[in-house]
Amino acid sequence: AQSVTQPDIHITVSEGASLELRCNYSYGATPYLFWYVQSPGQGLQLLLKYFSGDTLVQGIKGFEAEFKRSQSSFNLRKPSVHWSDAAEYFCAVGSGYGKLTFGQGTILTVHP
Amino acid sequence: DTAVSQTPKYLVTQMGNDKSIKCEQNLGHDTMYWYKQDSKKFLKIMFSYNNKELIINETVPNRFSPKSPDKAHLNLHINSLELGDSAVYFCASSLLAGGGTDTQYFGPGTRLTVL
Fold this sequence. Notes:
The complex is a heterodimer of chains A (112) and B (115). Chain A is mainly beta and 112 residues long. Chain A has a single domain (3-111), classed as Sandwich (Immunoglobulin-like). Helix content of chain A is 0%, strand content 53%. Chain A is built from no helices and twelve strands. Chain A has strands at residues 3-5, 10-14, 19-21, 24-26, 32-38, 44-50, 56-58, 64-68, 73-78, 87-94, 100-102, 106-111. Chain A is globular. Helix content of chain B is 0%, strand content 55%. Chain B has strands spanning 4-7, 10-13, 19-25, 31-37, 43-50, 53-57, 64-70, 73-78, 87-94, 105-106, 110-114. The termini of chain B are far apart. At the A-B interface, strand 5, strand 6, strand 10 and strand 11 of A face strand 5 and strand 10 of B.
């Protein structure tokens, strides 16, 4: 069965600092990987996705993520965080059976 | 212009009542989903429909019944509400049936509180 682990429940960074959110997945075949962001009271918005090809994928809002098969990881990064990035971030793995499995989320707090 | 919309946004009700949540997407997508996000923020799929046909039915009590009158709408009806049903329910849609490999677009969520 597929699963996703986000080891960090809550991360706090200062505005302008770099950010890395961790995501580890478990899936038997080639994974389809996603990062979504949820702002308070809002639905989830797709940041980026990896299906195949280049293991470094670029997303919206200046985010990027790197797929590392050997580590079963898909970490999300941003070189310089803005206060508006404060939100909850969800990593997800998808299968061809139409099922998307989410991690438990990482809450990002940004200090001015 | 909202892509995926849900009504109501908030729903407060008593145990034992029956309630419905409506979802509509104007993206022309073939597949729609219902997810439940519990108090610990775990987001789990409940159902998915492709062109009005049920394709995913996770282990969900049969008090929950999805209904898709057309491919742009997927409503969720809940009978005999229980305290444990309190959660945020998200509707989503994707262009294709392979929702696990296709980008899903989420609605704003419906916060259900059962008293």
